[in-house]
């Protein structure tokens, strides 16, 4: 019996096993994985899957170790980036029976296929055919023919080469069916009419592009009264003239790349706005939690490239959600969809709404107290006045507008003022007389309930208390919002985005919520005032710099909430394109570019005439036959140099009995020549007012002379005809190239020379064939600039990009679009598998040829010369016309029109930025550093090393600190990034499209020097637009540190060891120390955009030693930004460890509109880093400027020398001063800012600012050395500016940074107290909130004047004890220690309930104390 039981059991077991085997063979689930496919495509494939025994999965490249569990793996090879190890995993799976089919591989090494040719052709046919029918048959084909499951499936149909027509729409009667196609407008409109979707007189909107799920967007737009035309190919629509019968009011492009110049020209002609909503390309909750929002190649294709088309509103609209089977699907996020549709409708409504009904909210920026309205390079008050006058002429209802700009400015100072927290008396006066907008708690709560998520409001309350918060309020708890009411136009000051705080340090991890007043000022515009348009007037404000997500904002980001659905226009300087990108991407602004101040020569040659003559005499002797003695001539040069003080800037000795060397005199000569040729700005630009004829001419000279001169020099060098010692003696370059170039420009402007090919050839000394050859090379090189966009266009038109046979030639699906989401950090292309070159047939089709470096450089020089000669007259016209084009463009945008795109940069650096009145765009970060930037970066890095060697006995720096700024990055295409990489001894690797996707070590022997370590501080703006480049730098550091068998010393490896030791000593574990030791890229904690130290620097009574500032800098800038995984990570002591061994700090300077003295951010970043390095290492680092201003002559310059050039050609130059004094309040404020910045440098790098510089400030601005009527100018235009200048000078002396004489101090104190007495305290900067300074000033003047001075300050600071119940001020506002900062923390602000008698006692005691002082 037992054996029978065993037999039965065996039979049963065998049956079970056989059944299982049979099931697995015949009926088990088919597992199909997709690698690198877009979710949009996968969503369509998933929807087509009707077989529950087919399981689809997304296989991320980070999970390739799971590949063997799938029956079939389909890989989209377009843009696939995998390591050699990952490639081996795929290949091993293919070799071991997994069916792997790779399509569209741009890198041949990634084209892994294990299926037979018939199967491959069939699968490609299904994919290229697209549509649910093809996808369904493809899945069945894989189950039957690859997985062998034939019993439960029928034979699939062959791939259908479905030719999709131009228009498409879901079938309202059967929404789950294939979408319907229509070949013509007429056919489509018949369909619309049949389904009641064609509305008479409704706005018509075109939707195009492939990076969204349009079904829900179309439905929402139709529901809101629009007629929608979804099209597959916008260019074909325009070229075929089908668009002519549509008359679209707007175009929405679900973009992944550019549409191209053809469409830009169409949109410009037809004046149609272009919207480009974003697909975040991941799960919504993951995106909302992400601090970045979007980065890398996906950001480039979704945001950067569409901006070049003039697209606006990069609004996150589409995301991913899970379907019933857990498969990701793309969809329109409901709350985002509602706002986006409102936004589009609001823009369209402007096209038909009469101007007299439009309501416009204009935001301006001004400092507290009597500070003037501020914007970069602009005279703000008259500019704003001119705009309002123009708007009134255009029919806008503007009431009570003063008759002059001066009276208008007074109105703003009265009703649109901003106050420091301590200015209790000024606030009380404003509440009584300033006619503020009073906002109740009920109104505010209704607005915030509509717009703001509850947790965000909780953050606000934690920061600013319950409404109305810390700003001015009435006894009834109403917030008093400053604004100037002009009828249908309201002017609103941008209030402080941070709350008052007694600590300059930024607390990591805190939510950066703005205070109630800031929020209310924007929500009131939306809901209270009912604005149709929002305008931010001038560069720049604070809305776009509120922290959190860098791009692709969510409803958790303040800028997203506060802008809402209102059309937003931003008047922005062409000279500040980097920050402009933040305004575009983080506050949804359509930029309206405006001119910089005009340019002119410094006109100081006469001041240095005797010195230049003595140098010429020396040079004549030096090169004379017989080599006569030059000592006396050299001593004369030295005497004049010392008399002029130039030896201080050049760090030369002043011993008058020892002659300078030939090399030293050459430096002096070049310095004097630089002073003479320096380009400086004239009076600030006033919108609506053209430059004077003289300044137009001087600006054209500045734009044209250098390019012609340097092109001629380059041509002479290529022919071997350049004069010897030309680089050594800049005066020779002036005589032989600059002066002839200037004469040519003069003839071009006068019309005595007409531009022609003959003139160009004659000037260049070339033949017509050489000119044509240069043009052909330039054309070919430009063709490859936007290769991704070209490939997008080719795909859209159905052209093959290299598929093997069997590919459909018809319009296909977007499966080839690379999935550029989060990539594993280890993913990098190995050196043996570099990105492939573009296929030869594609190059041939696009007309791209190969040229040598020499050929390309010669062509560049010739084209630069031709472009400048041909455009000199055009530059003049563009400058003349720009004021009108600016207003016309702005008014057109206010009518819902299209603003044409343009690059940015000051017109000397980039003449293509004019005419103005256009929407600025930036460089594609993924293409950086460009080839020309790499060339310049290498040269400047070597220049830095050579300069350091000259100063330090032939030793080279061990580590160099670099500052990364967005403006420089955009305008130089990443030249500072190139410097950093080359210092480390690595070089970029470019893919087939010219994108820098990887790096490789430069062999030590080829490098020819030690690898130099770097440490990088990034501005928030650069961080936001180029995060992928920061990751590249971090990888370069790791690669350089790990380099083996170097011929020369490896300072990077040594620095990593030193940093690790420091971190362990500071208490980190060995494991953590090892990881953090390679951190080199740092920036503001909590996503902040600045260092947070400028307020501390200017608050001299709040610190005693500069080391306190260094500590705050190290804390505030200690976030690591070199890794996507560790983004914004703060590790204590990481930055301090990274700064060990730092020998030099470098700051970029790419614009001719600012310098180290005129821009506060330079001392903030470069100075802050310098101070931190000095405190960490105990050594003063060298400081250099990377001078990119002349694109033909980029160079390094020592900081002290740069400050010398700037001060001598600007603030100490009577020509410059007279020109600036033609301006008004903003120009006067510019002088004060320079004095503030000079003080800042004194704190950060004392050796850069000596007593002689302060003495000269005293002579020029206090004693009026040049008899220019300085005091009268300031008193007429901006007394607050002179108050600030004198206060800062006194503070510099008080802090011991300037050894001013008693006479100097008495004169300054007298002037300061007289200004305060006559014009009231300005309470700007240092004037009111520094008790130690006030005591110091009072001690240097007469007792009577001191008493009046102290009383004037007290009156402004303290509220009157009036019985008027409407003036209720919080006790904190009377606290002398309070200050306004933009530093935000989540420290709970305690609510102080102080009885009236306590307040009275406190005030009385304060008054008594003041009287005793």
Strand order of the largest sheet: 32-31-30-29-26-33-34-35
| Distance separating the two termini | 118 Å
The low-confidence runs, each spanning 5 or more residues with pLDDT under 50, are 792-836, 1360-1413
C-alpha Rg (nearest Å): 34 Å
Give the tally of β-strands.
35
Helix content: 40-55%
Mean pLDDT, all residues: 88
Describe the 3D structure:
The protein has 1413 residues and is α/β, with parallel strands linked by helices. The protein contains 53 helices and 35 strands. The strands form 10 sheets. It has an 8-stranded mixed β-sheet, with helices on both faces. Strands 17-18-14-19-20-21 form a 6-stranded mixed β-sheet, sandwiched between helices. Helix 20 (577-586) links the parallel strand 20 (568-573) and strand 21 (590-594). Helix 13 packs across helix 14. The radius of gyration is 34 Å and the shape is globular. 54% of the residues are buried. Residues 792-836 and 1360-1413 have low confidence and may be disordered.
């Amino acid at each position: 019996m037992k054996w029978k039981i065993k037999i039965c059991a065996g039979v049963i077991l065998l049956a079970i096993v056989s059944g299982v085997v049979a099931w697995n063979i015949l009926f088990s689930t088919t597992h199909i994985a997709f690698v690198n496919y877009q979710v949009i495509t996968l969503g369509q494939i998933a929807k087509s899957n009707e077989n529950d025994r087919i399981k689809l999965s997304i296989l991320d490249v980070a999970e390739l170790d799971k590949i063997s569990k799938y029956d079939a793996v389909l890989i989209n090879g377009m843009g696939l980036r995998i390591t050699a190890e990952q490639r081996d995993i795929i290949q091993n799976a293919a070799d071991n029976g997994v069916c792997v089919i790779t399509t569209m591989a741009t890198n041949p090494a990634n084209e892994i296929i294990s299926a037979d040719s018939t199967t491959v052709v069939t699968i490609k046919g299904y994919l290229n055919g697209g549509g649910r029918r093809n996808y369904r048959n493809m899945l069945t084909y894989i189950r039957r023919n690859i997985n062998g499951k034939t019993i439960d499936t029928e034979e699939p149909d062959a791939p259908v080469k479905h030719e999709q027509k131009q228009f498409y729409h879901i079938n309202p009667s059967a929404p789950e069916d294939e979408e319907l196609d229509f070949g013509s407008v007429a056919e489509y409109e018949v369909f619309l009419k049949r389904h009641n979707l064609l509305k008479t007189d409704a706005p018509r909107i075109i939707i195009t592009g492939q990076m969204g799920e349009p079904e829900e967007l179309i439905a929402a737009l139709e529901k809101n009264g629009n007629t929608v035309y979804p099209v597959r190919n916008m260019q074909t629509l325009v070229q075929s003239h089908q668009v002519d019968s549509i008359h679209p009011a707007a175009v929405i492009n679900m973009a992944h790349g550019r549409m191209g110049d053809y469409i830009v020209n169409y949109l410009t002609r037809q004046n149609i706005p272009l919207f480009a909503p974003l697909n975040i390309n991941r799960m919504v909750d993951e995106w909302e939690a992400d601090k970045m929002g979007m980065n890398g190649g996906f950001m480039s294709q979704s945001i950067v490239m569409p901006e070049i088309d003039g697209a606006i509103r990069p609004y996150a609209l589409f995301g991913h959600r899970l379907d019933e089977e857990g498969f990701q699907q793309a969809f329109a996020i409901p709350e985002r969809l509602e706002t986006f549709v409102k936004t589009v409708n609001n823009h369209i409504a402007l096209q038909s709404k009469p101007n007299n009904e439009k309501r416009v909210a204009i935001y301006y920026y001004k400092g507290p107290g009597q500070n003037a309205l501020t914007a970069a390079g602009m005279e703000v008050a008259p500019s704003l006045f001119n705009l309002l006058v123009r708007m009134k002429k255009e029919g806008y209802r503007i009431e009570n507008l003063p008759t002059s700009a001066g009276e208008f400015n007074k109105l703003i100072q009265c009703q649109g003022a901003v106050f420091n927290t301590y200015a209790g008396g000024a606030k009380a006066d404003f509440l009584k007389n300033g006619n503020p907008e009073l906002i109740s708690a009920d109104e505010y709560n209704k607005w915030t309930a509509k717009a703001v998520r509850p947790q965000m409001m909780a953050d606000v309350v934690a920061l600013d208390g319950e409404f109305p918060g810390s700003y001015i309020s009435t006894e009834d708890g109403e917030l008093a919002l400053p604004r100037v009411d002009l009828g249908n136009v309201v002017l609103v000051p941008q209030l402080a985005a941070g709350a008052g705080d007694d600590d300059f340090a930024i607390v990591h991890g805190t939510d950066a919520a703005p205070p109630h007043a800031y929020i209310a000022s924007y929500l009131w515009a939306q809901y209270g005032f009912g604005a149709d348009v929002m305008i931010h007037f001038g560069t720049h404000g604070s809305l776009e710099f509120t922290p959190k997500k860098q791009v692709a904002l969510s409803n958790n980001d303040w800028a997203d909430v506060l802008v809402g659905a209102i059309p937003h226009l931003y008047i922005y300087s062409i000279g500040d394109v980097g920050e402009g990108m933040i305004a575009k991407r983080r506050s949804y602004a359509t930029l309206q570019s405006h001119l910089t101040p005009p340019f002119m020569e410094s006109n100081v040659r006469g001041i240095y005439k005797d010195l230049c003559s003595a140098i010429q005499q020396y040079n004549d002797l030096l090169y004379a036959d017989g080599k006569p003695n030059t000592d006396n001539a050299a001593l004369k040069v030295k005497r004049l140099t010392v008399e002029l003080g130039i030896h201080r800037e050049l760090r030369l000795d002043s011993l008058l009995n020892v002659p300078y060397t030939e090399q030293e005199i050459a430096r002096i000569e070049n310095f004097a020549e630089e002073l003479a040729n320096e380009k400086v700005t004239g009076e600030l630009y006033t919108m609506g007012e053209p430059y004077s004829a003289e300044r137009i001419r001087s600006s054209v000279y500045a734009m044209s002379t250098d390019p012609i001169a340097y092109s001629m020099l380059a041509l002479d060098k290529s022919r071997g005809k350049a004069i010897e010692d030309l680089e050594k003696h800049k005066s020779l370059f002036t005589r032989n190239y600059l002066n002839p170039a200037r004469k040519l420009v003069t003839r071009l402007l006068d019309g005595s020379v007409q531009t022609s090919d003959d003139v160009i050839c004659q000037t260049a000394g070339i033949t017509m064939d050489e000119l044509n050859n240069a043009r052909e090379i330039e054309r070919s090189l430009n063709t490859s600039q936007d290769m991704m966009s070209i490939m997008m266009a080719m795909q859209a038109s159905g052209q093959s990009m290299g598929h093997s046979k069997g590919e459909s030639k018809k319009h296909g699906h977007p499966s080839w679009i690379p999935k550029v989401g989060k990539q594993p950090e280890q993913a990098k292309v190995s050196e043996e598998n570099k990105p492939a070159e573009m296929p030869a047939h594609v190059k041939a089709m696009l007309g791209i040829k190969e040229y040598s470096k020499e050929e390309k450089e010669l062509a560049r020089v010739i084209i630069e010369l031709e472009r400048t000669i041909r455009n000199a007259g055009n530059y003049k016209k563009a400058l003349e016309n720009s004021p009108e084009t600016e207003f016309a463009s702005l008014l057109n945008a206010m009518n819902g029109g299209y603003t044409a795109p343009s690059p940015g940069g000051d017109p000397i650096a980039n003449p293509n930025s004019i005419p103005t009145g256009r929407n600025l765009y930036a460089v594609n970060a993924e293409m950086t550093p460009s080839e020309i930037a790499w060339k310049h970066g290498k040269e400047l890095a070597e220049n830095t090393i050579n300069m350091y060697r000259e100063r330090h006995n032939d030793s080279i720096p061990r580590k160099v600190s670099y500052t990364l700024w967005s403006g420089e990055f955009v305008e130089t295409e990443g030249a500072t990034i190139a410097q950093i990489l080359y210092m480390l001894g690595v070089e970029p690797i470019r893919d087939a499209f010219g994108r820098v996707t990887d790096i490789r070590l430069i062999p030590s022997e080829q490098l020819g020097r030690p690898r130099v370590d770097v440490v990088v501080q990034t501005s928030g703006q650069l961080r936001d637009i180029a995060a992928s480049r920061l990751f590249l730098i971090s990888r370069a550091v790791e690669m350089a540190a790990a380099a083996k068998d170097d011929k020369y010393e490896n300072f990077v490896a040594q620095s990593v060891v030193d940093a690790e030791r420091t971190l362990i000593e500071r208490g980190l574990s060995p494991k953590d120390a090892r990881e953090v030791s390679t951190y080199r890229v740092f920036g503001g904690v909590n996503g902040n955009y600045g260092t947070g130290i400028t307020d501390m620097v200017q608050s001299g009574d709040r610190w005693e030693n500069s080391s306190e500032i260094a500590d705050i800098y190290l804390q505030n800038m200690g976030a690591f930004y070199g890794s996507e995984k560790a983004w914004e990570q703060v590790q204590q002591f990481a930055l301090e460890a990274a700064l060990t061994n730092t020998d030099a700090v470098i700051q970029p300077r790419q614009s001719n509109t600012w310098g180290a003295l005129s821009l506060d951010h330079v001392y903030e970043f470069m100075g802050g880093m310098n101070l931190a390095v000095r405190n960490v290492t105990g050594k003063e680092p060298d400081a250099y400027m990377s001078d990119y201003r002349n694109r033909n002559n980029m160079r390094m310059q020592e900081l002290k020398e740069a400050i010398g050039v700037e001060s001598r050609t600007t603030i100490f130059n009577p020509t410059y001063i007279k020109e600036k004094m033609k301006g008004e309040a903003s120009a006067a404020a510019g002088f004060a800012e320079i004095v503030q910045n000079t003080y800042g440098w004194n704190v950060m790098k004392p050796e850069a600012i000596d007593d002689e510089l302060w003495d000269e400030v005293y002579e020029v601005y206090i004693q009026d050395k040049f008899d220019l009527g300085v005091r009268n100018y300031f008193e007429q235009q901006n007394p607050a500016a002179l108050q600030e200048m004198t206060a800062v000078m006194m503070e510099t002396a008080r802090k011991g940074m300037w050894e001013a004489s008693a006479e100097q101090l008495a004169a300054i104190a007298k002037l300061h107290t007289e200004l305060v007495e006559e014009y009231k305290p300005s309470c700007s900067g240092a004037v009111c909130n520094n008790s130690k300074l006030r005591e110091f000033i009072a001690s240097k003047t007469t007792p009577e004047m001191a008493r009046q001075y102290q009383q004037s300050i007290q009156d402004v600071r303290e509220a009157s004890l009036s019985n008027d119940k409407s003036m209720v001020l919080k006790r904190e506002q009377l606290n002398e220690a309070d200050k306004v900062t933009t530093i935000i923390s989540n420290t709970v602000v305690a609510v102080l309930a102080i009885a009236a008698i306590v307040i009275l006692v406190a005030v009385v005691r304060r008054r008594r104390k003041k009287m005793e002082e």
